[in-house]
Amino acid sequence: MITNPLTSWIDVPAAYRGIRFWRNDDWEWWAYKDLAAFARRIAGGIIAAGVRHDDRVLVIERTGPEFVAALYGVMLAGAIPCPVAPPPLFQSEMHYARHLQAISEVAAPSLVITYATLAEQLTYGGYETQVRTAAQLAAGDEAAARPPAGAALLQFTSGSSGRVKGVRVPVSALASNVSAIRAWLEMGEGDATASWLPVHHDMGLIGCLLTPVVQQRDLWLQEPADFVRDPARYLACFSAPGAAMTAMPPFGLDYIARRVSPELLAGSDFSGWRALIIGAERIDIEVLERFMALMGPFGFDRRALLPAYGLAEATLAVTGLALRENLATVPVAPHLVSLGEPVTSTGADARDVVGCGRALDGVTVSVVDDAGEPLPDRHVGQIVVGGASVAEGYVTENATSLTEWRDGLLWTGDAGFLDDGQLYVIGRLGDAMKVRGRTVFAEDIESALVEAGVPRLRVAVLLGSTAAGPTAVVLLERPQAEWIEAARTVSQRITEGVAMEILDVPRRSIYRTTSGKPKRRDMWSAYVAHNIEGTEVVGEPVPSVGN
Questions:
Q1: In principle, which of 344, 484, 489, 493 could form an S-S bond with 336, CB 3.0–4.6 Å?
Q2: So where does this one cross the membrane (predicted)?
Q3: Consecutive H or E run containing 168
Q4: Span 452-538: which CATH code?
Q5: 56-113 residue pLDDT tens
Q6: What pLDDT is attached to residue 66?
Q7: How far apart are CA 99 and CA 122, in angstroms?
Q8: What is the pTM of this model?
Q9: Second-level CATH architecture of 8-274
Q10: Rg of the Cα trace of the chain?
Q11: Which regions of 432-526 does DSSP assign to beta strands (E)?
């Protein structure tokens, strides 16, 4: 029978290594041997439920042994796991039901595995697909593993567009990316990982769960809410002799720097922390410096900061700064960026763009112009990715996205430039607009606002066209007076020739993905439909003429 390199650990599971889950205010340890047995029983229940080879199964579980066992149980049953985020706190049941319906229309699952409360809601709410808990599926006998499915998993992504898309990731692509991450980080026998990221999506799923599990490395896992409540407890996982590796978006480092005091770290030793991968959004050098100011005195090595670039359509990781290599930055004047042209590094507005390292093993990266021709170093263009880790495509043929597959290459829809082989990411082409021959990126405006003191998670910038021409909308969640003034000054400086409006909106009004990215297209649609609740503080609202 064809073997699956992702599940081979289940054949010889370790009894002395495992995963610690933070549950009920304590660490709950599960040996890989116990997780493997749990997964095999779930696989038997999945097959008994009538799930066929290559069927799709939604896995909606919070961080815990049920998620890990269900994920691998689906693989052992020869089906395709489709990890889905459970309902966020404070979100209405109706809103989540609509979200789940959109996912189900894309995935067409034959089974949903979830926890008891949600299973009951779905069953009594008229959800048509059969729903089971992990415990129900594991109540029967184990089953012999089936041949692997045609895909390792279906990875859902919405990005800034907000529209659900299912990325079909082949077994070979996932295995290749996991192998590339292991080689990049030089993961050894004793290297443990800790993570608070959501386990259902690329960085948390592949980078911080599958990669260590395939090698049966020790692992500490928390829920995002646990990290928010007590980031110092998460940091304690890395104090010697603790975990050596993790990953998170920049806002996680910013949160640590703001919420953790040196007194809370007294006695900590972070000298064994070898790799902190930073990705998923624009990286501000100021955030890294604040993090280092807190962590450096306790042994954290600056060279453990590893900026990276990746996306679900390439499975996960594309580039990453090499271990023991110093951070590199290139100053860029955002108001002078033009696609196909060299970056301008002078001027009062120039800000450091952090390098995201070089292509990982088996991955190719180029930056091209509109015609697909490679551009010289320090010329801004679209980032194009190739190699064994690139996914097959979206499962829905009519999925609209700036990201597209052409002749085996992935046109990412992201803008950036190369310099001596290292990739520098500027922003999303769909979150940009051309004004007087230059390209204005929403990320540039946001980064300038953060630099001016506006908290990153309290601001979002939307760009589009209205009857007044190119338009920028700055959303500030319950802003302080100085934030409004910063938004006025920064926006006028960077968006010269652009109609501008600044809105004071309620807390939690900014739609975000699980990795913290603003869902700009969704919010732009709400803005032009006059469906954003907020008070205008600068500018005049203008009628929309489209996107």
A1: 344
A2: none
A3: strand 165-169
A4: 3.30.300.30
A5: 999 999 999 999 999 999 999 999 999 998 987 655 667 788 888 888 988 999 999 9
A6: 98
A7: 13
A8: 0.83
A9: 3-Layer(aba) Sandwich (3.40)
A10: 23
A11: 432-435, 438-441, 459-466, 469-477, 499-505
